[in-house]
Every structure is written in C-alpha cells, then in structure tokens.
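Shipment paperwork, digital attachment
Item: protein structure file
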Amino acid sequence: MKIDWNKKYTTIAVYSFIVIALSIIFYVILSGIDRFNQVLSGYFSVLHPFIYGFVIAYLINYPLNFFTKYLKRIPFFKKVKKSRIHILALILAYLFSGCLIYLFITFVLPQLVNSITGLARRIPEYISSTTDFIENLSNEVSIPAEVIDFINEQLYERWTELAELINEITTDLIPTVLFFLRNTAQSFINLFLGLIISTYMLAEKDRFISIAKKINYSIFNKRVSYNLIKISRRSHNIFSNFLGGRILDSAIIGLIAFVVLSIVKMPYASLVSFIIAVTNVVPFFGPFIGAVPSFLIILFESPVKALWFLVIIIILQQIDGNIIGPKILGDSMGISPFWILFSVIVSGRVFGFFGLIIGVPLFVLFYSIVKNIIEQRLKTKGLPIETEDYFHK
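Attachment content:
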C-alpha cells in the first residue's frame, strides 16, 4: 500500500511514532546507563588499534612530508616514480621516529627512573625534616599548647588514614597487579597493531583521501562538498601547524632547561626538565602546571635552590613566549589572548588534559569558520569587514 505523506494526519502519526520510539530508546539507555556504557566501551575497544594507528600515522606524517619534500629535490630521484619516492620516504620516516624513541629510552628514560626512585627513597627523610622543622618552630615561637595538640592530632589522624590506605592497597595488591598487567599487555598489543595499521594508512594515504572525497561528492552537492573539503584542509593545517609547533617548542624548552639546570647543579634536573617539556605543550597554563610540582620537588631538597628555580623558569618562559614560540608558531594563532584563555579553560573542563592541548586549535578552526561566514554576509550587504571600522559606529 502506498502511503500518501502529504496527508496531514499521516504525517502527524509518523512523527508521533518516531518521537515516542526515540523517547523509549532514550529512557532505556538512561535506566541502564552503566550497562550501556559497558557494552558501548566493549564495542569501542575493537577500534582501539585503529585509533592508535591513526594517531601514530598522524605524527609520523610530519617526517614523511619532510623526507618526501627533500627527496624530490635530489637530481637522482627526479626520474624515479612518485610511488617509490613515497615508499622510501615512509621507510626513512619510521627509521627516524625509531631513532628518536631509541635515544629517549637509552639516554632520557634511565635518568628519569633514577630521579623518581631517588625522590621516592628520600620521602621519609623529607617527612622527618618537616616534622623537625615544625617542632623547632614551636620551640622558637610561642605557639599555644592547644594549637600544637591540634596539629599533632591532625598529623596522627592523617598517618592513621595513610596506614589504612596502605593496608587496603596491600590487600588488593594481587588483583590490582593482575589488572594492570592485563591492561598493559592489551595496550602493547593495540600499540603493535596500531603501528602496523599506521604503515598501511600512510602507504595508501592518497588513496584514502581520494575515497573520502569520492564519498563526499556522492552524498552532498558541489557547493557543500567544496566547503567540507575546504574545512578539512583548514583543520589539518591548523592542527598540524599548532601541534607540530608546540611539540618542537616544548622539546627545545626542555633541552634548554636541562642544560641550564645541570649547569647550576639543580637537584633532579632531568626529571624537572622533562616535566617542563611535557607541560609546556599546554598553551597559557603549561608553564604554571609544570612549575608548581617542579618547585615542590626542589623545595624539599633546598629552599634556596627552589627560589632560584622560579627565577630561571620565569626567564625561560619569557624567552619562550617572546622569541622561540613566535619563531616556531608564528606571531599569533590569529586570535586574541582572551580567546586563547577561554578555549583552554572550556576545553580543559570538558575534555580534561587532552582538551588543554587541542582546545586552542579547535577554537581557532571554529573562529575562522564563523569569521568567514560573517565576512561573506557583510560583503553581500556591502558593509566593511574590518573590525576597526565598527569601533565608533
């Protein structure tokens, strides 16, 4: 039987059925949200190797483009097929990435492990020195006995809670270790599969992009398809320039910090430099996030050196913000510092630490799209597009 969709009551009935069905599905999902999340995560875990592969491919694409660009400039490769140059550049990109990982594991990782283990061994000493400091302070300064009793009582309660926590951890140690080993093994398997998947992604990169364009043109009209491709290219340029620039900038800052802190014989120089390099990837708040734990680590060892560390980190961040950062990332991302602060806070709140990293390029992409739409509408109306032209209107 053919349904006449133009009839009023038929349309209302169909829409009502769709709304009721969606409402029931929504209620079922909410009533068993834990089970739904469990099932969803189970299906989603199948995609983990492909997510790993995409991330690895996206990162290795930087050296791949670099080697492809410079291999084409060599006279010998001008007569070589493009596909063979791509394969050779892909091999060089993976070898280069492997060398970086090898250098990190060989030279950086052992120093980090030694710094962390040394810090863990000295924690009882730090606690003892802090207790002695409080006792000496109470002897030198006339602190009421009630305050001292309150502090001792609070310290006793905290130590009791810590002992209970250690007891609970010890009781559940075997299941926790087994769970950790299982997750670690699964992560290594996903990483290995992701590495293999990334090679296929990069080897047939142009083909995958062509397939995506083919699907895009088959679904949408020419104008929408063109705009989607334009947005995709803009997204890639923004993210690649920003993330690549931040990683390079952070590596340079971490290396400079390690050299300077080693020269002045700062304690835990390798660990502190690594913290500074990692947190420097986060725009705006990165220096503060890295400086706080680093300052506390050095403070237990030497309060004087901790103050000197603050001076060094302030100078280093000024050099980064005014010299190194602008040279690598450009003078700006095209938005004011207010919007950078806004994007970091909002994306960090929504997506956590990962949001702190991708928040700025995401907002820059959204900002550029909205800006283009507004400017096109202003041009259509014959109005000026520069913001300065509206200051006194």
